[in-house]
Amino acid sequence: xxxxxxxxxxxxxxxxxxxxxxxxxxxxxxxxxxxxxxxxxxxxxxxxxxxxxxxxxxxxxxxxxxxx
Length: 68
Description:
The protein is α+β, with helices and mostly antiparallel strands.
């Protein structure tokens, strides 16, 4: 799949994942080095009953490599 921009890629991926994950967008935090950071999204499973850790979360940064 080719996308015109990272925003378009982000919307398409998140739209597919929202049925399985709670999605928080543009999440600010702090890197292990202490520097501030912002992730494009943080995903948490809607049903974590099959996960070994129910508090699991994934940080996602979208990069549209096909547009370069």
